[in-house]
Amino acid sequence: MKHNFGAGPGILPQEVLKQAAAAVINFNGTGLSLLEISHRSAEFEAVLDEAVSLVKELFEVPSGYSVLFLQGGASTQFAMVPYNLLPEGGKAAYVESGVWANKALKEAKYFGTVDVVATSKESNFTYIPKDFEVPADAAYLHITSNNTIYGTQLQQFPSSPVPLVCDMSSDIFSRKVNVADFGLIYAGAQKNMGPAGVTLVIVKDDILGKVDRKIPAMFNYQTQIEGGSMYNTPPVFAIYVSMLTLNWLKAKGGVEAIEKDNLAKSKALYTEIDRNPLFKAVAVPEDRSHMNVCFVAENPEHEKPFLKLCDEKGIVGLKGHRSVGGFRASIYNALPITSVHVLIETMQEFAEKNK
Ligand code: PLP
């Protein structure tokens, strides 16, 4: 058995993979593959409806918000957000807490003025800047809830005088969030919600329609809302597997229950990193992520042999991002705590061998 600590695409529940595999051959007894049924068929419309209602239920989405399943990944949202929300000649506020936030703000510059209200670039993003003021005339404030590459996570969301836009790609559905505090939430599915190919957007309807520019249909939230995420052919497989994963989460007790499991996993791992003299955590303690645990070897020469030992134990996807180095244990919702225990035992065995 493999222990999949990969950052993205992330691990999916085994039972979801089995159901998805069966549906590729024969979808719900239709005698057709999920990949060949019409997206306008009653069978698929039921899947999309169920996926939307699971998002609403699990995240307690209040009325006045639309739930969309779009394409193009979170990276398309980097542009779609300012396209739809940043008026000509207006400005938007961004917190630069990592490379993804940087990519988001660069896209916004195509549409208006970008005010980077805070950055932690000088420390290679080992913390999330929290001391900033948001200009009252900004169209929105953009933040990243979990910085996948650096293993930092906002433990408390800032209060904002303007609509709060949040990239939740790497911690969506991992913890309870008050959706009413946000103007727009987006997330590429492939870490905690499903396979690559679909992007979740939860948008407050009344923040739309405030820009004058013409927006091409596919990039226009309003068109997507009116089309019920089916303006064009939707990514049927990715939506189906997301729906299965959300159902799996519901059966586990929902977001509150998984948050407890996630805290138990991250606590066990950080405790070992802090205790083990061979390893050191990357992020400052108060911003440590419960999804991506980044750590390095005190002695860089230990890096390769540790990864080799991990490989022997069936631990995969542990190598850190090239801009941070070391190791990154992504402990997304579907990763069982038993895999975390295997990693901890491997760290202990390695320390024993390298005393
Ligand atoms: N935002 C965050 C926080 C990410 O971790 C990633 C990818 O890892 C992205 C955005 C980009 O997502 P996508 O590949 O779906 O465009």
The percent range for strand residues is 15-25%
Sheet with the most strands? Answer: 7 strands, mixed
Tally of individual helices: 9
What are the distinct ligands in this entry?
pyridoxal-5'-phosphate
Low-pLDDT runs of 5+ residues are none
What is the CATH domain class of the largest domain? Alpha Beta
The CATH superfamily of the largest domain turns out to be Type I PLP-dependent aspartate aminotransferase-like (Major domain)
H and E string: EHHEHEHEEEEEEEHHHEEHEEH
Number of strands: 14
The percent range for helix content is: 25-40%
Query: What is the 3D form?
Result: globular
The class by helix and strand makeup works out as: alpha/beta
Give Rg in angstroms.
Answer: 21 Å
Task: Record the strand order, biggest sheet.
Answer: 2-10-9-8-5-3-4
CATH architecture of the largest domain: 3-Layer(aba) Sandwich
The span between the termini is: 29 Å
Q: Overall pLDDT, averaged?
A: 97
Could you say what the CATH topology of the largest domain is called?
Aspartate Aminotransferase, domain 2
Number of domains: 2
